[in-house]
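Bit of a strange request maybe. I'm writing a small parser for structure token strings and I need a real example to test against, not something I typed by hand. Could someone generate the tokens for this chain?
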Amino acid sequence: MLVNRNALACAGLALAMAACNSGTEQNDTAATTTTAPETMENATFYVGSYAEPDSQSIYLYSLNEQTGELTQLSAIKAGQNPSYLTLSNGGERMYAVNETQEYEGKQSGAVSSFEVSDDGKSLELINQVATGGGAPCYVSVVDGTVLVANYMGGNVAAVPVAEDGKLGQAQVVQHKGTGPNKDRQEKPHAHYIAPSPDGKYVFAVDLGADKVFGYKLENGKLVQHQPSVAFSAAAGSGPRHLAFHPNGKYAYLVHELNSTVTVLKYNPDNGTFSEEQVITTLPADFEGDSYPAAVKVSADGKFVYASNRGHNSIAVFSVGDEGRQLSSVQHMSTGGNWPRDFSISPSGSIMLVANERSNQVTVFKREKNSGKLTATAYEAQVHKPVNIVFRD
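Reply from user aminoacidic:
Good idea to test on real output. This should exercise your parser:
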């Protein structure tokens, strides 16, 4: 469904409230499907969300990259809370975490494998398995293995994928460590896991332990690398997500608990990082509470972006010195509440932001030379959107 923020704000609020209060009304709204014209200007993307088990929960949209217009193509029932998604290299399969704290009577979330139709509009469940820890909140895939970070479990999992897409039993590795924030760092809280661009290591970011842990992936199993701690973040900073520069020499670590981004120099010889710079994600005059969520790098490596939940903005940084230095460029309001994930379109001309608490995906024009964002009139009403993944 296409929505103009300026003209339909009241209607959008009513729709979001109806979705929260009535599962039937939410499903009827989400099931609305419109056919978008197939042109070179269109890109398609999935939205993962928080949803009840029998509600629509993964959405497919078309984006007109020239105008920013959004068109809903399908809404799919994909189980409870398929918050984070990833696609196989060819896009023929999708893997989604089911962010729950109980699965089949045990303290665990789940991960689901889906066969993706040729047009992407439907997902057929292949199977679903336990992740071995509660509240799985991130998923990636490499070399026939699905990697999952379990937030409440404080552990990470490697799940084998058979040739037919079926998931096997998870291998679970428990993290250790705490931080000084007694409310948020009373135990480990794994928040991210993905391979390095060179394929040599797997890095897991733990908010509770203030650590980035390093692994090797051997025969589909996570083997703790030595040194096991790839980077020790500032005490109480709560590292959350990691993004590499396209040159593979530097990476950017966003910290949820102190609203900063740390520029890291990557050492591929021993699988560690060293600190180059720390920069705030917030403007100097902001005095409220804010919690960064995602960090992304533009495809050309010239800009880094981070989302601020609370300040409700996207922080824009220019990249200098081959990736070593960040400079603040802009803080752009997301036009909604609690921006979780965001994604830059394949052309680089559009940014989409998932505003979880205001139930909307908002559209911004992106200026490639300056990196700056400009609001558009376009958005889509989506119930508790979390993650945005473009199809290749």
